Amino acid sequence: AGIDPEFAGRALAAAEKAWRWLERNPNAPNFKNPAGMETGEYGDWNNQDERFWAAVELYRATGKDSYHNYILRSHRVNIDLTALGWQSLGGFGAVSYLIMDEGRQNEKIAGFLRGKLLSHARVLAARAASDGYGLSLTGNEYYWGSNGLVMRRAMILIIAGLLTPEEEYVQIAQDHLHYLFGRNVLGKCYVTGFGSDPVMNPHHRPSGADRVKAPVPGMVAGGPNSRLQDPAAVKYLRRNDPPARAYIDDQGSWSTNEVTTYWNSPAVFVTAYFDR
User: Fold this and answer.
1) Do residues 176 and 150 make contact, with C-beta atoms less than 8 angstroms apart?
2) For the chain, which terminal residue's Cβ has fewer other Cβ atoms within 10 angstroms, N or C?
3) Contact in structure between 151 and 268 (CB atoms under 8 Å)
4) How far apart are CA 41 and CA 39, in angstroms?
5) Has this prediction a pTM greater than 0.90?
6) What b-and-e string marks burial along 229-238, b requiring 16 or more CB atoms within 10 Å of the CB?
C-alpha cells in the first residue's frame, strides 16, 4: 500500500471477494487438471492450509475480527503448521501470524504455533546431530526434489532461531546450506554457476538449447533421488547405492537434475539470511 496504493486497494478487494466465495463454498473440490490437460497436475488433496494462510494474511491486511475468528477455529484442524511446500503450506500461515505485531496476536494461538515450529526444529536438530554432514534428511527422504526439502528445513531452523535464543538452530541451517554448495558425499555444488564442481547439465531446456556450454547460473538442481524415476537415472545409477549418491548431472535426468522455482525460492531465503 505504501508503494502503489491504487493497485494494493484492488488486490485487497479481490482477496476479500475470493474469501467471500470460500465462505459460501466450504466444500469446494481440491484442484485437479481439467480434462485433456496432460502436463504435471500439481494436485492438492486438502485446501484447509490454503484457507488458513489466506485468513492470516487477510487479518494482517484488514484487522477484521472475522478473519481472526477463522484462524482461531481452524489452526488446530488437519493442517501441517510446519510445512513450507507448494502443496502443504500451513507453515507460511504460522510464520506470518508469529511475525505479526504481538498486540494483534491471540496469545493461545501464537503459543500453539510457536510450539509446533520449535518442536519440529528440535526433531530436525536431533537428526542432523547423527548425520555425518549435519543434515536432517533420513534415508527415505532422498526423493524427487530432495534439495528443496533441505532448503525448506533450513528455513524452519532459521525461523526457530528467530523465535528462541538457542543458536544451534542457525548453525544447523548453515550446515544445510553447506550441503547444497558442495559439502556432500559427491562433493557436488547443486547450484549452477557456483563452486569448483557445479551442476553443468540441468534438466532445463533453455540452458540445453542456447549453444552456451555453461547453464544459466543460480539454479538449484533437485538432487539425489534414490527412486530412480527417469531413464538416465536408471541407466547410470545403481539402485543399491546409498541414497545420498543417487544423483546424475545429466540433462535427461529430470528426477535428479530438474530445476524449479519452488526449490530455488527457499534457497534464496536461506542464502539471503546468511548474506545479511
Assistant:
1) yes
2) C
3) no
4) 6
5) yes
6) ebebbeeebe
Distance CA(32)–CA(44), nearest Å, equals: 7
Angle at Cα 27 formed by Cα 22 and Cα 28, nearest 5°?
65
The SS3 call for residue 259 is strand
User: What b/e readout covers 142-169, taking b as 16+ CB neighbours within 10 angstroms?
Assistant: bbbbbbbbbbbbbbbbbbbbebeeeebb
**Residue 190 is inside which H or E element, if any?**
none
Q: Could you read off the pLDDT tens digit of each residue along the chain, which spans 276 residues?
A: 999 999 999 999 999 999 999 999 999 988 889 999 988 888 898 999 999 999 999 999 999 999 999 999 999 888 999 999 999 999 999 999 999 999 999 999 999 999 999 999 999 999 999 999 999 999 999 999 999 999 999 999 999 999 998 889 999 999 999 999 999 999 999 999 999 999 999 999 999 999 999 999 999 999 999 999 999 999 999 999 999 999 999 999 999 999 999 999 999 999 999 998
- Among residues 207, 222, 205, which one has the least CA distance to residue 256? 222
Neighbours of 104 (CB within 10 A): 12
- Output helix, strand, coil percentages for the chain, rounded to the nearest 5: 55, 5, 45
Strand ranges, E, within the chain = none
3-class state of residue 61 by DSSP: helix
Q: At a CB cut-off of 8 Å and minimum separation 6, what does 235 contact?
A: none
DSSP letters for 154-169: HHHHHHHHHHSS-THH
